[in-house]
Amino acid sequence: MNRTERRRQAKLMARSPTPAKTVFAKQLLEEAINHHRAGRLSQAETCYQKILACEPDHADALHLLGLVAYQQGQYNRALDCIMKAIQRDAAKPLYFYNLGLVHQKLNQLPEAERAYRQAFSLKGDYIEALGNLGNVLRERGELDEAYATYKQVLTIKPDHPEGYNNLGVVLKEQGRLEEARDAYQRAIVLNPDNAEAHYNLGVILFEDDHPDEAIARFRQAVSIKPQYAKAHHHLGLTLLWKQDMDGALHELRTSAHLLQNHGKAVRIDALHASRIKHDEEQVHYLVERGLLVQSDTRYQTTLTALREQVSGEANQRIRLSQEEASALAPSLNRILHYADNPALPRGALNPELNVKEIEQRYNANQPEIIYIDTLLRPEALAALQQFCRESTIWKKDYEDGYIGAFLGEGFSSPLLLQIAEELRTAFPGIFHQHRLLQAWAFKQDSARRPLKIHADAAAVNVNFWITPDDANLDPASGGLIVWDKEAPRDWDFKVYNSTAFQPKIREFLNQSGASPVKVPYRANRALIFNSDLFHESDTCVFRDDYESRRINITFLYGRRR
Predict the structure, then answer these.
(1) Which residue ranges make up each domain of the chain?
(2) CATH 1.25.40.10: does it fit domain 193-261?
(3) What percentage of the chain reaches a pLDDT higher than 70?
(4) What is the mean pLDDT of residues 358-377?
């Protein structure tokens, strides 16, 4: 049906009795679904809207319009549309299934659980809804209930490979590693092209210190599913363990490319003011130095206009118009520039560090907390500063005015990998057999406290700062506070790092008599400490300009035992 014919039909339908409207709506729905299946979301949305203009209670059009919004990242709008569809027809299990998906994206887990349970009650063999119910229960830490749910999936469909894969995930989280391995292997037998099962089996081998077998599984996963970013990330880490620096960097950069270089639509209700301020400053910095040629001038113009709305209030979000979101998307969701950051032939660490004395200090402190000044050679520090200022890798924006970059999402370079490996090998009395598991960096706005109290899921934490000292307006602060009591062994990492758990952490520290160790900010100063220790950023007051943003870098080594 062409555009002229649709318009003619619409005019006729407005004057026609209900059967004509129904016929037209059915034809238009078929056309919309064809657009939708082909990924032409804007055309599909237009068709659904036309149906609803004539039949406001058309449940399928409301539901599918909600699905378009979900695929565009407009989760609140998706929720509204699907709820309206359910109000008009509460007998469709698919409606409740997709409602569950939206609630999950909004981190509304109790609501997601109810939606999946309702979908399953309407369709007793709806194993997709049952599997997602298990995922929600697992995400909430209800591992026994999740295990029982996955077993129920396999009772309904004993040859369901995804059921075995999900079962393996929960078994691993329960610490039942051999059973998890068996479940993943069963999933692979049932479906040799199950990339997730190969990846999950690779993670078990990776964590059990079988790098060669892990590499084989990760390679199999990415050969089946080349867009599998997590598998590329883990393959990169494992190659780093094997001292294949070039291969590691290639895989980490591939992961970053898959996650960041998509140019997808920007959520109109989800951009933090801190991200807008940073990106506007960074683009100006790069263009001014001839490092970035803007092919789309709308990007910089839009950022500059949005910057005027930034008030400086904590947690401010900027709502975008559709036009602004479209102008930002092609560049905001891409890594436009990587600064050259080669490894240094003479090494990156300061050669005058007293290794024996540092190791003795670390092991003498119980719990282990030390700091080292002048960690890096001057040329390594300068190169790292340049990489962080120039590379457009800062894609994670958070409340409280800070933004982040992670190892498999852009924060990787030959120099960074060199520093991570030199630290591990230079201080065997601290790192022992522990290998790099994760790395990230955070940039902070000028007068914010970037990180709330938390602990990290690792054995050894290295946290160092690279912004020049003259940017720090209060030399007595700006660093890190580490508490001298370890997190209880039975506390789950995901739970105790949530915002909702903050009061319980404070209560634990108070009742256990924990004392804070305050380490003021200094450029090129590194803290090395037991990752089980709770820590938080100190009060920070830095100059309010792009080059003065406080930058901290974190390396995590080994697993919490």
Answers:
(1) 193-261, 271-332, 355-557
(2) yes
(3) 93
(4) 97
